[in-house]
Write a structure and sequence with these properties.
The complex is a heterodimer. Chain A is mainly alpha-helical. In chain A, 32% of the residues lie in helices and 4% in strands. Chain A has a domain of 41 residues: Histone, subunit A, CATH 1.10.20. Chain A has a two-stranded antiparallel sheet. In chain A, strand 1 and strand 2 form a beta hairpin. Chain B has a single domain, classed as Amidase signature (AS) domain (Amidase signature (AS) enzymes, Alpha-Beta Complex). In chain B, 37% of the residues lie in helices and 13% in strands. Chain B contains 15 helices and 11 strands. In chain B, helix 2 runs antiparallel to helix 3, helix 5 packs parallel to helix 6 and helix 9 packs across helix 11. The chains are: A mainly alpha, B alpha/beta. Chains A and B meet through helix 1 and helix 2 of A and helix 9, helix 10, helix 11, helix 12 and helix 13 of B.
Chain lengths: 95, 484
């Protein structure tokens, strides 16, 4: 785990986030500082612990699959930047 | 005493006895907001007409009948804006109510106004809001804390009787401490998160800001309980949390962890919290020195796990279903990239990048999975401590409110503001902050509130409320009024 290793431009592309050259430079420095700080965790002995994913011990929490009232298509679309014919409209994805 | 200074409990008595009407209450509060909010800037949006209308038909026999309550701008309130203080949600109108909002409505509360916050609840000073920062009611040159700074400042300034906030790493307790009010972070799963815009889903909880501990208990009675719409909400039974606020805490065992009284803590905060510990001893509690050995790693664990979850949660803001979209995208990647570049502020971008990085191929084991293991050690620290004690006493924040602009240049310095609150979220347990004194005025800085944090085990809300209430009633810090 190397804190020098972060390639901000590459990670921003993964996150679908366009950055200016200034932002890349600023974040490179700030994130290297933060990653340097979190490197302290490497010295913690975790051999006694199994990784778990939830904050509280839980088992599968299933419910019956029943139809319940929900918001209408019209309400769901009301906040869309572009919509038409009961659909979300996006730029062409496939030529 | 003007009615705007009433606690919710006192207000309810007056309303039930018809000494005052809900319309008078709403009018008094709106006048207070109009008079002081241009300086405090706690509210982003106040719908005065809707509040007046709701007051006319309020049923004062219900648990919160006729009581106006302010809501952090991170919860969906049907028909209201919900921007999370982000440009990317400009113009968004919530199409449904969060479960907690429905519960407040059922209890007869009047929903009055949306409060300011750090963008997407990421920050400790409310300076990351896209709509301008909120100020501390005790000193307008100082920040109110964050991320729920608007809710804390509104209650602290008595321009709200109570408010809702959300707490992922201290975002209720830290601003409550800095604004001189009470703030409670429930046990993970106690309160439904449905309708809360997610930051880090495994850590987020909704909770109340109030003027008194009894009011916090009253609100928790309304907010708590299982919700089929939040699969992580618990079926654990909810006791009546107001029932055992007797003031009697004789024999209660209270732990004091040595890791929370460290170098770097403001000496005045240290002294105020130690005085509170002495007060507990006087009240008949048994003080036990304990150790939470992994405390020093909490901030590092948090900034891996919380940003990882945030990077996934915030992927939904892509310019398709809600929020803003960049003008004239040339294709879908251009739409995503520019929509998010224009919509998110710097702290949100920083955390998305950090979170994406710690989950990326080749780094997930070293960062994310390793941090989860250290989280488990932190959780075990608390579980071991609660075998010996009923609750734990600590400072809420290492310092009182800091000056606006003082920490904005260094994200890492800002992160360390939450050093005493973060472990509570990582362990999933509950915590409350309540006033325990003031700093001495110095130069042009007036006295500023100091907060005491009481941490309880899972489902230990009753214990921390009982302990908090006993202290509050024997000291009276909650009766102090801000200069504004």
């Amino acid at each position: 785990m190397s804190s020098q290793g972060i390639d901000v431009q590459y990670v921003a592309d993964l996150a679908r986030l366009r950055l200016s050259a200034d932002e890349v430079a600023t974040f490179q420095k700030q994130l290297s500082d933060i990653l340097g700080y979190v490197d302290q965790l490497q010295k913690v002995d975790v051999s006694s612990v199994e990784a778990i994913t939830a904050s509280a011990p839980t088992s599968n929490n299933l419910r019956t699959d029943e139809l319940k009232p929900s918001i209408s298509a019209e309400e769901a679309l009301a906040n869309a930047p572009v919509q038409s014919d009961n659909l979300f409209i996006v730029p062409r994805m496939v030529e | 005493m003007s009615m705007i200074h009433f606690s919710v409990t006192a207000l309810r008595k007056q309303l039930a006895a018809k000494e005052i009407s809900p319309v008078e209450v709403v009018d008094a509060l709106l006048a207070r907001i109009e008079a002081i909010d241009p300086q405090v800037k706690a509210y982003l949006h106040v719908d005065a007409a809707a509040a007046r209308e709701a007051a006319k038909s309020a049923d004062v026999t219900r648990p919160l009948g006729g009581v106006p309550i302010a809501i952090k701008d991170v919860l969906n309130v049907k028909g209201d804006p919900c921007t999370c203080a982000s440009k990317i949600l400009k113009g968004y109108i919530a199409p449904y109510d969060a479960t907690t909002i429905g519960k407040l409505r059922d209890a007869g509360a009047i929903l009055l106004g949306r409060t300011n916050m750090d963008e997407f609840a990421m920050g400790s000073s409310t300076e990351n809001s896209s709509w301008g920062s909120t100020r501390n009611p005790w000193s307008l040159a100082h920040i109110p804390g964050g991320s729920s700074g608007g809710s804390a400042a509104a209650v602290g300034a008595h321009e709200a009787f109570a408010a809702l906030g959300s707490d992922t790493g201290g975002s209720i307790r830290q601003p409550a401490a800095l604004c001189g009010c009470v703030g409670l972070k429930p046990t993970y799963g106690r309160v439904s998160r449905f309708g809360l815009v997610a930051f880090a889903s495994s850590l987020d909880q909704i909770g109340p800001f109030t003027k008194t501990v009894e009011d916090a208990a009253l609100l928790m009675n309304v907010l708590s309980g299982h919700d089929p719409l939040d699969n992580t909400s618990s079926r654990q039974q909810v006791p009546d949390l107001t029932a055992r606020l007797t003031g009697d805490i004789k024999g209660m065992k209270l732990g004091v962890p040595k890791e929370y009284f460290i170098e770097g803590i403001d000496p005045q905060v240290d002294a105020a919290v130690k005085a509170a510990i002495a007060k507990y001893q006087e009240l008949g509690a048994e003080i036990v020195e304990i150790s939470l050995p992994h405390t020093e790693h909490a901030v590092a664990v948090y900034y891996i796990l919380a940003t990882a979850e945030a990077s996934a949660n915030l992927a939904r803001f892509d310019g398709v279903r809600y929020g803003t979209r960049a003008e004239k995208p040339t294709g879908v990647l251009d739409m995503y990239g520019r929509t998010r570049a224009e919509g998110f502020g710097p702290e949100v971008k920083r955390r998305i990048i950090l979170g994406t990085y710690v989950l990326s191929s080749g780094y997930a084991d070293a960062y994310y999975k390793h941090a989860q293991k250290v989280q488990e050690l932190i959780r075990q620290d608390f579980h071991k401590a609660f075998e010996k004690v009923d609750a734990i006493l600590t400072p809420t924040s290492p310092t009182a409110a800091f000056k606006a602009g003082e920490r904005t240049a260094s994200p890492l310095q800002m992160y360390l503001a939450d050093i005493f609150t973060i472990a509570v979220n990582l362990a999933g347990v509950c915590g409350i902050s309540l006033p325990c004194g003031f700093t001495m005025p110095e130069g042009d800085t007036p006295r500023l509130p100091i907060g005491l944090q009481i941490i309880g085990p899972n489902w230990g809300e009753e214990t921390i409320l009982r302990a908090g209430h006993a202290y509050e009633q024997s000291t009276g810090w909650h009766k102090e009024l801000p200069p504004i």
